Amino acid sequence: MKKISLLGATGSIGVQTTDVIRKHPQSFQLYALAFGRNVEKGMQLIQEFQPAIVVVQSEQVKDALLQHGYRGKIYTGIDGMYEIATHPDVDVVVNAVMGSVGLSSTLGAIEANKQVALANKETLVTAGHLVMDAAKKHNVSILPIDSEHSAIYQCLNGESKKEAHKIILTASGGSFRDKSREELAGVTVEDALNHPNWSMGAKITVDSATMMNKGLEVIEAHWLFDMPYDHIDVIQHRESVIHSMVEFVDKSVMAQLGTPDMRVPIQYALTYPKRLELNQTKELNLVDIGTLHFQEMSLERFPCLRLAYEAGRIGGTMTTVLNAANEQAVDLFLNGKISFLTIESFIERALESHHVIHTPNLETIQQVDEQTRALVKSYVN
Ligand SMILES: NC(=O)C1=CN([C@@H]2O[C@H](COP(=O)(O)OP(=O)(O)OC[C@H]3O[C@@H](n4cnc5c(N)ncnc54)[C@H](OP(=O)(O)O)[C@@H]3O)[C@@H](O)[C@H]2O)C=CC1
Ligand SMILES: CC(=O)[C@@H](O)[C@H](O)COP(=O)(O)O
Ligand SMILES: [Mn+2]
């Protein structure tokens, strides 16, 4: 029985994680959960799973939960998430919050020697060196939940890291894959949220449309698999059936395939190195699909991917700025303050004005993150 702390329980990954836990009550217990503001969903989960500890984003949300009749142990904010990520009774921490707000909990979980199942890719983008150094120091495995990185992890299983030559990340192309850059001028939030293959939270769905999601994933792969940027390729693959590939030194290529269903990588991160049945997931039927499509990824069509490669290659606080500027710009877009194409121009402006700091510590990263958000907000005026 593994006791799980689930951060971001009310979100897309969080809810799918509870689905996996529900299906395997002999293997997993939801010991603690954290969420932001969705009190209704949070209460449903509390009533079903009866966690020992609950964490919410703010005192205001805590009051709302008390008004809904919750009488158990409750903490708030980033400190609360840190508390349940490091709690001595917890075995596994699933980090499924959105954004760099998950960083201190990821670091705390590693330092407390927890098994870490990581969906929160932003923590690796903003501070990959801190996360990976801590994981090495504490001999903690970080099990990726992100579908591409889970695929790579599975392809590398039992292989020698030295013999892996190249990582090939697949990208669906996102909501606007069939539009030219000219056609992007008038797109709406609703259009952007219409992902062709996956049902996900709003921020990552917009990231898929700008291709920043793949940019963040390139940086995530760099850190997780210690792979130089020149050895990480991205190709467009419309069907999201091949979740990613690894080319080895002998030119043999391993791929991991499956229907697009996040419960598969979530469960794998919880059961690794074993596997459990996952009956409710649709079997992959390649005969029904018939044809898989592949296309070169254009850095001109998708400038956010170029910006991510450039920031990743410079390193240091450049990726902190990339991530914070993106989080802020996407938030402005989702709130109707800027257009879709302004997202990429705000990010580029923030990167251009930044003087990189190499090997920053946690405090510096947090400062740069805050300053970048304020800077990007000021661009609106
Ligand atoms: N969805 C997917 O299929 C995939 C997601 N990912 C990654 O997983 C992470 C989560 O994505 P997704 O589930 O789609 O996102 P959602 O927006 O659906 O969920 C985010 C979760 O984080 C919570 N949250 C947000 N801010 C705070 C905060 N300050 N304090 C506490 N909780 C907070 C939200 O709470 P509430 O809603 O209650 O406010 C919610 O539970 C992201 O990093 C994303 O890139 C990676 C691969 C696939
Ligand atoms: C499911 C998942 O892992 C997402 O990150 C997914 O990759 C989004 O799809 P694209 O970024 O390929 O559009
Ligand atoms: Mn992904």
Low-confidence stretches: none
Total discrete domains: 3
**Whole-angstrom Rg:** 20 Å
State the share of residues found in helices, binned by percent: 40-55%
Whole-number mean pLDDT: 97
Helix count?
16
Could you give the count of β-strands? 12
Structural class: alpha/beta
Task: Write down the overall geometry.
Answer: globular
As laid out across the biggest beta sheet, the strand order is 4-3-2-1-5-6-7
Query: What is the architecture of the largest domain at the second tier of CATH?
Result: 3-Layer(aba) Sandwich
Largest sheet: 7 strands, parallel
Measured between the Cα atoms of the first and last residue, the distance is 53 Å
Walk me through this protein's architecture.
- It catalyses: 2-C-methyl-D-erythritol 4-phosphate + NADP(+) = 1-deoxy-D-xylulose 5-phosphate + NADPH + H(+).
- GO terms for molecular function: 1-deoxy-D-xylulose-5-phosphate reductoisomerase activity.
- Catalyzes the NADPH-dependent rearrangement and reduction of 1-deoxy-D-xylulose-5-phosphate (DXP) to 2-C-methyl-D-erythritol 4-phosphate (MEP).
- Residues 142-225 form the 1-deoxy-D-xylulose 5-phosphate reductoisomerase C-terminal domain.
- Pfam families: DXP_redisom_C, DXP_reductoisom, DXPR_C.
- This protein has 381 residues and is α/β, with parallel strands linked by helices.
- The chain has 3 domains: 2-140, NAD(P)-binding Rossmann-like Domain (Rossmann fold, 3-Layer(aba) Sandwich); 155-259 and 284-300, no CATH class; 315-381, RNA polymerase sigma factor, region 2, helix turn helix motif (Rna Polymerase Sigma Factor, Chain: A, Orthogonal Bundle), CATH 1.10.1740.
- 46% of the residues lie in helices and 15% in strands.
- The protein is built from 16 helices and 12 strands.
- It has a 7-stranded parallel beta sheet, with helices on both faces. Strands 11-10-8-9-12 form a 5-stranded mixed beta sheet, with helices on one face.
- The protein is globular and about 55 Å long.
- It starts with a strand and ends with a helix.
- The model has no long low-confidence stretch (mean pLDDT 97).
- The structure holds NADPH dihydro-nicotinamide-adenine-dinucleotide phosphate (NDP), 1-deoxy-D-xylulose-5-phosphate and manganese (II) ion.
- Manganese (II) ion is lined by residues 146-148, 217.
